[in-house]
Amino acid sequence: MERVVLIANHRTEVDWMYMWDLALRKGCLGYIKFVLKSSLMKLPIFGWGFHILEFIPVERKWEIDEPILRQMLSTFANPLDPLWLAVFPEGTDFTEQKCKRNQKFAAENGLPVLKNVLLPKTKGFCTCLEILRGSLDAGCYSVFNVETKQFEVNGIHGNENINKPLAVTSRVISAMVTWERCGVEFPVGNLIKLYAGISYEKGLGSIYDITIAYKHRCPSFVDNLCGVDPSEVHIHVQRIPIKEMPLSESEAATWLINAFQHKDELLSQFVAEGHFPQQGIEEELSTFKGLVNFSVVVALTGIFVFLTFCSSIWFKIYIGFACAYLSFATYLNFRPLPVLGIGKPMLCN
Fold first, then answer.
1. Structural element, H or E, at residue 150
2. Where are the bilayer-spanning segments (predicted)?
3. Cis previous bond, 44, omega within 30
4. 173 near 79, Cβ under 8 Å?
5. Which of 50, 75, 90, 153 could link 118 by a cystine bridge, Cβ 3.0 to 4.6 Å?
6. Which residues, other chains included, contact 289 with Cβ-Cβ below 8 Å and sequence gap of 6+?
C-alpha cells in the first residue's frame, strides 16, 4: 500500500466528503487522515471521531500550529503503516470575496494572480514533506529464488533456510545499517531476514495533486445532506513520485505555488469545456454494499444506545467516563501513547 500526501483545492465546505469517496473507491478509506481547523474538533460526537481517527487540528496560526503539526506527523512516520494524509493548502474554502483579497495580495507581492483557487499556504505542506519524506520514500523489496543466507546486523547473528522460490513484496524502513551486497537499508537493532535475490526500488511514495470541480454550481453541506447537489463531481489526479519533489523548503514552496497555478488553469478549462482533459468515468459504487454498511452502522448504533440507557448502572458509568474522557482529550488535544507503541521498544530490547 503506497503512502501518500494528497493536496487539494478547497472549493466548498464539503470537499472532504469527496476525498473520502475517492479513498473508498481506491480501498484506502481506513487510512485517510485530514488536516482540519481546530474548531471542528470541538463538535460534539463528530469531534470525538476526528480525534480517534487522528485528524490534525490547526488554528491557522503558524506559531501555534507548528509544534502540534510536527508532533502529530511524527506519529505517522512509520513506513509500515498505510497513510493517505489529506491537506488543503489554501487553508479555507473558496469564495469570491476571499478570491478578490487574495488577488490583491498576490499582485502586491509579485505572486501569480489566480481566479479559481486561492494562493496556498506553504509552511504546513513543507513541514509534511520534511517529516514524512523518509517514510514516503521507504521503498519495497521483492524476494525471488530464495536460498540460505548467513547474516549479521548490529551484532545479531542468524540464518534462514528456505528451499523453495518465493515472490514476496514487503515494506522496509530506511535506517542506518546497510547490507552492502544487496544494497538494502534496514532498521538498527531489529532481527532482519536477508535473502539472495533481493531487488530494491526507492521512490514508491507519492504526492497526489488533486483538483476538484463541480458541475453547474458548488454544493453546500445542506445540498449534500438533502441529495440536491452536486449533479456531478469531477476529480483530476496527478501523481508525483516523492523522489521528484524538491528537497529545500523554498523550492518546495515554489513547487506548491506552481501546482496551484496549474490547478487554476485546469479549473478554467473545466468551466469552458465541462470536463478535465483525458477524463475517464469511475464505476458506480455498489448500492447493495452501501445499504449493508448503512444497516450495520444503524444496528450497532441502536444496540449501543439501548445498552447506554437500558443496561446496568456499571455500563452507564463506563459510558459516562468514556464520554468525559473523549470530551477532555478532544478539547485539550490530549493523545496518550498507544499501548502497542510502548510495547514495541520493550520487545525489541
1. strand 149-153
2. 291-309, 315-334
3. no
4. yes
5. 90
6. none
